[in-house]
Amino acid sequence: MNYEKNRFINNVYALAKKNKLKIGVLESSCGVSVGYFARLRQGGENAAPNAELLTAFADRLSVSLDALIAFDFTQLTESEQKLLNYMEKLRFETVKRKLAWRPDPACFGGPVPLNPDGTSAHPLFINTGNLLSAEEMADDDLPESVTLSGSVYHSVFRPEMDSLVPLEIYRCTFPGKKVLYLVAVSDPGPVVPGPANWTELELVMSVPEQSEPLPFAHTDHESPGCLDKALVSLFNTVKDAVDLPALIPEAEAIIDDYLK
Description:
Order of helices and strands: HHHHHHEEHEEEEEHH
Distance between the termini: 30 Å
Radius of gyration: 24 Å
Helix content: 25-40%
Number of helices: 9
Largest sheet: 5 strands, antiparallel
Shape: globular
């Protein structure tokens, strides 16, 4: 398993301090002698714990193995740490099939739902008015009852841009009619079709009676942040989970009972 040993050790010390856990207690609880990490820091690149021991450290520190060796916990603020824990829990429960993510029809070839007054009924889209002017509609001899309205993706992270294209949207419903959205959004560039200028990931939640979704986290192509890896990992996990064939509840219950 390839990883930066010093970053891993620094993460262990940072997380142990955060959890008010003495390094000696951590070492003993994971089956290594006290002073293991001090010796590990002094050793060469070949001195490294095996996968089983890495997993034991991660479990004791309440993080995933991927996070322990890939992220830099020494650079996280308290809010970023909380977001990381949140995304890690989402990823873990997605792997365990405890969360039911679904592709959003508004992105995958489906229309954006509209309210009776013609405004967008989807929390991630806004209505931009008629696609055609009255003169253009008259020239095309369209029936008077026809109104062509346009809805565009509205990013809470880049609200000034109305040209963004959601490549993929996945949604998961929580109690209280709260819906968590994970979106891959792209700036399509000057020529369509053609290569995009950039693509970013966004994690937002719609809450009843809130005017727009609550921003949680996003990647930034201009200034990558310390949580980007966590969001990319969550997106890939959700995408894989959605692509897998789902068991019906009766079959899953029988399998779970047998595995116990």
